[in-house]
Design goal:
The protein is an alpha+beta fold. The chain has 3 domains: 1-37, no CATH class; 38-165, Pnp Oxidase, Chain A, CATH 2.30.110; 177-217. 35% of the residues lie in helices and 27% in strands. The chain is built from 7 helices and 7 strands; from the N terminus they run H-H-H-E-E-E-E-H-E-E-H-E-H-H. Strands 2-1-5-6-7-4-3 form a 7-stranded antiparallel beta sheet. The protein is extended and about 85 Å long. The model has no long low-confidence stretch (mean pLDDT 90).
C-alpha cells in the first residue's frame, strides 16, 4: 500500500470500498508500517510532470470549503527539483489570492496532472511552502528557467507525500496546439499541392470540377 493510499483511504473510505465490493472485508487495516514514508517520484512521474503545460491545484480554506484552480504555463514550468520536491514560479493573476490564502491556513494540497491525448492522469498529495524571490535568488533562478509569463510574485514548493496513477476509462481525448501542429502543417501542404494541380489542369484546358464529377460517377 502506498503513502497515497494511506492518506486517501480513510476509515470511512475503506468502509465504503468494502460495501461496494472493491476491498475484501479482511483487508481493512492498512498496516502499521505501510505508507508512512513519502512516495518518491520516479523517472516516469518526473518525465510526465515535466511535459505538462498545466495542472489542477486543490486547497481547502478555513471555512472547510475546497477550492480548485488551474495553473498553466509552457511545458516544463513545473520543475522536479528532486524525488520529493516540485517547484514553480507563481506569477500575478487575477489577484484574488484564494489559493495562496488557503495555503496559509493549511499547506496541504492535491494536484492533478493531465495528459488528455494519451488519457493519463497523475494524482499527487503534497505540502506546500512559499519562498520569496528576494530571499532565495538561486531557487528563483532555477524555477524561472522555464516559467509562466508575467510578474513573479513567489516561488511555490510542493513536498510530495504520495501519488497515484488513474485508469484512462473516463478521460476524454483532447490535443494541444503543439500536438495538432504536424497534422495542420500536413493538411496545409496537401491543400497547396491540390491548388497547384488544379491550376495545372486549367492551364491544360481541363476543368478539375468536371474531372472530379467523372470520378464520382465512375466514368
Amino acid at each position: 500500500m502506498s503513502r497515497f493510499a494511506r492518506l486517501a483511504f480513510t476509515d470511512t473510505v475503506r468502509r465504503v470500498q468494502q460495501q461496494e465490493g472493491t476491498r475484501p472485508r479482511n483487508h481493512g487495516d492498512l498496516g502499521a508500517a505501510v505508507g508512512l514514508d513519502p512516495d518518491p517520484l520516479g523517472e516516469r512521474e518526473s518525465e510526465f510532470i515535466g511535459e505538462r503545460d498545466g495542472f489542477y491545484l486543490a486547497t481547502v480554506g478555513e471555512t472547510g470549503w475546497p477550492y480548485v484552480q488551474f495553473r498553466g504555463g509552457p511545458e516544463g514550468f513545473v520543475h522536479v527539483l528532486d524525488e520529493h520536491t516540485l517547484g514553480y514560479a507563481d506569477v500575478r493573476g487575477n489577484r484574488e489570492y484564494i489559493t495562496n490564502g488557503n495555503l496559509r491556513t493549511d499547506g496541504r494540497a492535491a494536484l492533478f496532472f493531465m495528459d488528455y491525448s494519451r488519457r493519463s492522469r497523475l494524482k499527487l498529495f503534497g505540502r506546500t511552502e512559499t519562498r520569496w524571490p528576494e530571499d532565495d535568488p538561486e531557487l528563483t533562478d532555477s524555477v524561472c528557467r522555464v516559467r509562466t509569463e508575467g510578474r513573479v510574485e513567489r516561488v511555490v514548493l510542493i513536498r510530495g507525500e504520495g501519488f497515484d496513477w488513474n485508469c484512462p476509462k473516463h478521460i476524454p481525448r483532447r490535443y494541444t496546439e503543439r500536438e495538432l501542429a504536424p497534422t495542420r502543417e500536413r493538411l496545409s501542404r496537401l491543400e497547396s499541392e491540390n491548388s497547384e494541380l488544379r491550376s495545372r489542369l486549367r492551364a491544360l484546358g481541363a476543368d478539375p470540377d468536371e474531372l472530379r464529377g467523372d470520378e464520382r460517377s465512375g466514368g
